[in-house]
Write a structure and sequence with these properties.
The complex is a heterodimer of chains A (261) and B (301). Chain A has 261 residues and is mainly alpha-helical. In chain A, 78% of the residues lie in helices and 0% in strands. Chain A is globular and about 75 Å long. Chain A starts with a helix and ends with a helix. Chain B is mainly alpha-helical and 301 residues long. Classes of the chains: A mainly alpha (261), B mainly alpha (301).
């Protein structure tokens, strides 16, 4: 394909524009000055302090636990949902209803989603003390938006598989259990893994849902960063942001590897 | 009468089969109904209630929240909230438009890379998208600060007062929004561009179409499926965004998202907050319906 060089220049400039903010944060995370943006020498100090700051470690732990638990739940539910949607001969109208349910979490603006949860948890609390804002309510919220993304990813994999192998399995007298275990699940694994990684990163990245459903004891890293941006940023936050960025790069590269097959 | 069918060597009936499928389906559907649909409906109910003296909810039926949404208050009509709604639409529109304009060259550039490096380039677009939004927004705050080169340049050119920064400002909100949403347009657009039928482009060129015409008649229609997804994924969340205007816009450049957040925190007026949320939801659904008419089967992922 021949391209006008202007297209290449514009593309590279756009990419640079996307990376500029991260670059600036990374450079500043090695800056000796505590306040202000002037460069006064290289230091690892902020990274060292980062790992001795109990608030940040606590938030990191919360973020990770939240992402892990909600991803596990969402992956199971989303995968089952996708299989049911694609592999059972539902009547057309129920199929349409189910698809609308599936798209609902994707198209609802997350702020609406979040305040709806605030209201609902408020109502649930009148019945049960289980719904005090905290890790549990955050998991409930995260799973709800993750399910849809897992299901959509797995479903697109199911669609690209087609029905040939189903029919082959049937013709060769596989039972349904055998077919699921030995044919469907192995073939679906890349899709399930991709969906799970998507769900995991969505949870790590989420700010809005967590902001509204978090309790006083369940700070996550995005919430902590937001709070410090409002209060006045310390260089530890630069270091933290740089680390999160690096972890993201690794995750994306790993998932590219996995899904390319 | 029950029809018998064969399902993986088993003689069964459709009813039995559905029952089994239901076990796969039910957990996810119950979850979404219980934590999205029912909460959404309670939001509707709440929007017709009143705020009590201490910020509690009083269950008296009233349409006052919706009147306020349209700008009617105790002092008569004021354009403030209507302005915020229109501004949200406008910001979302401009953001989407600029993202589309920037995404085309990028999508074509990535598609033109050799297959071995193509996915690496795509990963380069995805990485900022996965980097936390709060971090990226904060990074722009810093880059637009008074003693950073961008603001310095604007100061020397006389566009800014000396010692002034480029944030908080509407411009900063646009920059934040565009960097946040660009990957959402690039990714689906790229998948359309990758599948482009180039023989149509050649045909257009053989028939002496100029570049503009070639683009609009041979390329653009083929990229519409991807473009539609990109536009939906950008326009809807851009309208409800509250982090970016909060951190980059300053108090004078609020969007609907900020208005909602204020009602649930600072003002503690949940019923009004619920009404504003429904206003946003209606704008979202209208936007979606307009697009549904264009591209029928829209896959969002």
């Amino acid at each position: 394909m021949r391209l006008n060089p202007l297209i290449g220049i514009s593309a590279i400039a756009t990419l640079a524009f996307l990376y500029l903010p991260m670059l600036a944060v990374a450079v500043l995370s090695f800056n000796k000055t505590r306040y202000g943006l002037t460069w006064s020498g290289f230091t690892w100090d902020w990274y060292v302090r980062l790992f001795s700051n109990p608030d940040i470690l606590e938030a990191a732990r919360n973020t990770f636990v939240l992402a892990l638990l909600s991803t596990m739940i969402a992956t199971v539910l989303g995968t089952l949902f996708a299989i049911a949607l694609e592999r059972y001969p539902w009547p057309r109208r129920s199929q349409g209803f189910l698809e609308n349910i599936l798209y609902l979490p994707v198209v609802t603006p997350d702020i609406i989603f979040a305040v709806a949860l605030v209201v609902a948890f408020g109502a649930f609390r009148m019945v049960s003390s289980l719904f005090e804002p905290g890790l549990f309510t955050m998991i409930l919220g995260h799973v709800t938006f993750q399910i849809a993304f897992v299901a959509l990813t797995v479903r697109s994999r199911l669609k690209s598989l087609g029905h040939d192998l189903d029919e082959a399995a049937r013709d060769l007298y596989a039972s349904y259990g055998y077919y699921v275990r030995r044919v469907l699940l192995p073939l679906l694994t890349p899709g399930i893994v991709a969906g799970a990684m998507l769900a995991f990163t969505l949870s790590l990245d989420d700010f809005v849902i967590s902001f509204f459903t978090a309790g006083p004891t369940s700070q996550t890293l995005p919430l902590l960063i937001y709070a410090s941006v409002r209060r006045g940023v310390t260089p530890e936050i630069h270091a933290l942001s740089t680390l999160i960025f690096l972890i993201t790069v690794l995750l994306v590269l790993a998932s590219e590897r996995l899904t390319r097959r | 009468m029950n029809r018998l069918i064969v399902w993986f060597g088993e003689l069964t009936t459709p009813a039995k089969l559905y029952r089994r499928g239901l076990w796969f389906l039910l957990p996810a559907v119950v979850w979404i109904l219980g934590l999205l649909v029912i909460p959404g409906l309670s939001l509707v109910a709440l929007s017709f209630a009143e705020r009590g003296q201490y910020g509690e909810v009083v269950w008296n039926f009233t349409l006052e929240n919706y009147a306020r949404l349209l700008g009617y208050g105790i002092f008569g009509w004021s354009p403030d909230t209507v302005l915020i709604l229109l501004r949200s639409l406008w910001v979302a529109f401009v953001t989407t438009l600029v993202c589309v304009i920037l995404a085309y060259p990028l999508a074509f550039f990535i598609a033109s890379r050799p297959p071995r490096t193509r996915y690496l380039w795509l990963a380069l677009v995805i990485i900022p998208f996965w980097t936390n939004l709060v971090i990226r927004t904060y990074a722009w705050q810093m880059l637009l600060a008074p003693d950073f080169p961008f603001a310095k340049l604007a100061q020397t050119l006389g566009l800014l007062a000396p010692d002034a920064g480029l944030y908080p400002s509407p411009l900063a909100v646009y920059i934040g929004m565009i960097t946040a949403f660009l990957p959402f347009v690039v990714m689906p657009l790229f998948s359309s561009v990758e599948r482009l039928d180039w023989s149509l482009v050649e045909a257009a060129q053989d028939l002496y179409a100029n570049r503009v015409r070639t683009f609009f008649q041979a390329v653009w229609p083929q990229t519409l499926p991807g473009l539609t997804v990109g536009v939906i994924l950008t326009f809807i969340p851009a309208m409800g965004m509250f982090v970016i205007p909060d951190l980059l816009g300053g108090a004078k450049y609020l969007l609907v998202g900020n208005l909602i957040q204020q009602q649930f925190y600072a003002s503690r007026d949940w019923p009004y907050g619920a009404a504003v949320s429904l206003g946003l939801m209606v704008m979202t659904l209208v936007g979606l319906a307009l697009y549904r008419r264009r591209g029928k089967d829209v896959d969002l992922v």
